[in-house]
Amino acid sequence: MALEKATAYLNTKGFGDRIILLEDSTATVVEAAQALGVEPGMIAKTLSFLIDGEPVLILFEGTARIDNKKFKEFFHTKAKMIPADEVEGYIGHAIGGVCPFGIKEGVKVYLDESLKRFDVVYPAAGNDHSAVKLTIQELEQAAATTDWVDVAKVE
Questions:
Q1: Tens digit of each residue's pLDDT (9 = 90 or more) over 53-87
Q2: Rounded to whole angstroms, how far apart are CA atoms 143 and 72?
Q3: The pTM is what?
Q4: How many domains does the structure of the chain reveal?
């Protein structure tokens, strides 16, 4: 169902033809990078947080981690990820396929500056066997981005 919602959404944005369906799992950054034959940083991982009780998605380059100090400076609260068993209820996609496409209304989407290291990135497309090949500018358009943030540390 989530793949269909993401596909329908991407079709309305003109990017439906960029969806890649894979036999291998794309549930983790490592699995997605292996399945797609790209470096892990090119996977646009989507993390879900609760900020003042509201769900928020932030997309990071695949090897990035949350910088708690930067997160608190930008959002004025500690980083609190949505518990895994509650993500689908808040976002509309289950863990392993969380993406900014076809999500529940009102969920804000942020892109982290770490993504700008790459010309092309691969976020999920609603399930754990899919990805979407997008340039950074296309991702910004397709994700209906609220804003860019700098809340990651890249190792």
A1: 999 999 999 999 999 999 999 999 999 999 999 99
A2: 23
A3: 0.95
A4: 1
pLDDT confidence band for 20 (50 / 70 / 90): very high
Mean confidence (pLDDT) of the chain: 95
Q: What tokens appear for 119 in the block?
A: 């010309």
Percentage of the chain exceeding pLDDT 90: 94
110: phi then psi, degrees, rounded to nearest 5: -120, 150
The β-bridge partners of 47 are 58
Chain centroid offset of residue 114 CA: 13
In a domain, 90, yes or no: yes
Rounded to an integer, what distance in angstroms lies between the CA atom of residue 155 and that of residue 126?
Answer: 27
DSSP letter at 82? P
* Residue 103, domain CATH: 3.90.960.10
Measured CA angle at 33 (ends 4, 23), to 5 deg: 50
Residue 155 lies in a domain: no
Alpha carbons 124 and 127: distance in angstroms, whole number? 7
User: Is 17 in a helix, a strand, or coil?
Assistant: helix
Q: Which domain holds residue 97?
A: 2-150
Residue 83 located in a structural domain = yes
Pairing of strands 19-21, 44-51: unpaired
Contacts of 26 (CB under 8 A, 6+ apart): 32, 35, 36, 96, 124, 128, 129, 130, 131
